[in-house]
Amino acid sequence: MLRRMTSSKKAEPPEPEAVFKPREKRTFELGNFELKETLGTGTFGRVRLTNCSLDNKFYALKMLKKADILRLKQVDHIKSEVRILSLIEHPFIVNMAGHFQNDQALFMVIEYVQGGELYSHLRREVRFSDEKSKYYAAEIILAFSYLHSLKIIYRDLKPENLLITGAGHVKITDFGFAKIVEDRTWTLCGTPEYLAPEIIQSKGHGKSVDWWALGVLIYEMLAGYPPFYDESPFGIYQKILAGRVEYPRHIDPKAKDCIKKLLAQDRTKRLGCIKGGAASVKNHKWFNKFDWAAALACTIEPPFKPELQGEGDTHHFDDYPDSEEAVQPEISDHEKALFEEFDTF
Length: 345
Known about the structure:
Elements: E1 7-8, E2 33-41, E3 45-52, E4 57-65, H1 66-71, H2 75-87, E5 96-101, E6 105-111, H3 118-125, H4 130-149, E7 152-153, E8 162-164, E9 170-172, E10 179-180, E11 189-190, H5 197-200, H6 208-223, H7 233-242, H8 253-262, H9 278-282, H10 292-296, H11 333-337
Antiparallel strand pairs: 1-11, 2-3, 3-4, 4-6, 5-6, 7-10, 8-9
Helix pairs in contact: 4-6, 6-8
């Protein structure tokens, strides 16, 4: 199955673990980094593995071309991503160590997660066991609990946006569609197979869409394919709105019940949105006797650890051709001023 493309037209009290932590602001510049293999490419540039001379650590350096950001009118979009990543820190999120800019580009210094995408491991295994799926789901629930308590919705959950650490934990990456939302927002964004009904119907949405997407992810991990699939996005949307899901026989009844409650069409009745919020998901019978405190402390033995040949190992990522970076067009003083706010985050 090909990787799914993200598509877009362009308050509850915090739980104990879900609080902003003052982040030490680190100062970087491009000369601090030895550029190595390309880990991924995107609309605005690419992500390179780097070794930082300041601490001799490996990082993923996300390089975003200013000219392309301006051409596609995405300055505010990128600002939101950088601002959110500047505020958050969690064991199951790919954290940002810092960011900087020069005349041509913005740079985000992201922790390097060597194990590759959950997507690749799932495609290789076809489907995960009940215990393995539950383990990854639990770590995502803890991350969502943290984000939602800070009024941040993620909006792009899918196996392609989950990375596996060398120790075997899952980390959410790519916060391009994350947003701080007090009540609800109306932007259509996400990946077709993972869109909640309220996004498709333009009813306005909030954290409910993340819990829906979790239900889709748990189903895909257990079945090996998503619950709503069609050759066209429109066909997928029709199936999502119809809400009919067929469950393979091998899926445990408790897991099936959890998925069904996460995929409730009525978001006021959806697990995660009902009284208790994230606690309603944690307390579901599929997670009976699950040690949430140990999970947050990363003391539960992971079900799988990727084989690695050192901290800079990249063999779990696809190969990308090296490219000579083209000379970027000059941007005006007015356009440069649009990027000044990044230095305040």
